[in-house]
Amino acid sequence: MPIEVLTTNLTAVALLLSFAGGFAWMITRFDQRLDHGLGHLETKLTSRIDGVEARLSHRIDDVEARLSHRIDDVEARLTSRIDGVEARLERVESDVTEIKVTIARWEGPSRPPLLLLE
Q1: For residues 27 and 25, what is the distance between their CA atoms, to the nearest angstrom?
Q2: How many Cα atoms are found within 13 Å in the side-chain-facing hemisphere of 55?
Q3: Please, what's the b/e burial string for 88-112 (b: 16 or more CB within 10 A of its CB; e: otherwise)?
Q4: What confidence score (pLDDT) does residue 1 get?
Q5: How far is the C-alpha of 109 from the C-alpha of 93, rounded, in Å?
Q6: To the nearest 10°, the Cα dihedral for 62, 64, 69, 75?
Q7: What would the 3-class secondary structure string for 3-16 be?
């Protein structure tokens, strides 16, 4: 094989290896820069998300406390109204019993059925 062909082939291989090495170095640099940039971005976003989470948690706790207070107030009012209705129903029941007794007194004792003698 002539020396020129061998030299050309070796030069082509050397050029391809140097391009591959340069490309690998360039990818490594981009990867390092990207990792550094993403790490900083991740830290920034994490702190921002933590702040939003804390604010939302605080607001949710406030809303829960207000709603619990309102529910307790409504429950107390309904309980007192139900107790009032119960007392009124007991009075109505007592009144109905008294009316029944009064009607029974007006009617008098019940008569036994008449026996017809034949």
Answers
A1: 5
A2: 6
A3: eeeeeeeeeeeeeeeeeeeeeeeee
A4: 64
A5: 24
A6: 170
A7: HHHHHHHHHHHHHH
At 117 the three-state DSSP class reads coil
What's the full length of the chain, in residues? 118
Structure tokens given for 83: 């107790």
Residue with tokens 């209705």: 85
Structure tokens that stand for 113 in this block: 């059925």
Give every residue of the chain whose pLDDT is below 50, as ranges. none
Tokens, residue 20 = 């591959």
DSSP 18-51: HHHHHHHHHHHHHHHHHHHHHHHHHHHHHHHHHH
Q: Quote the tokens at residue 21.
A: 């090495």
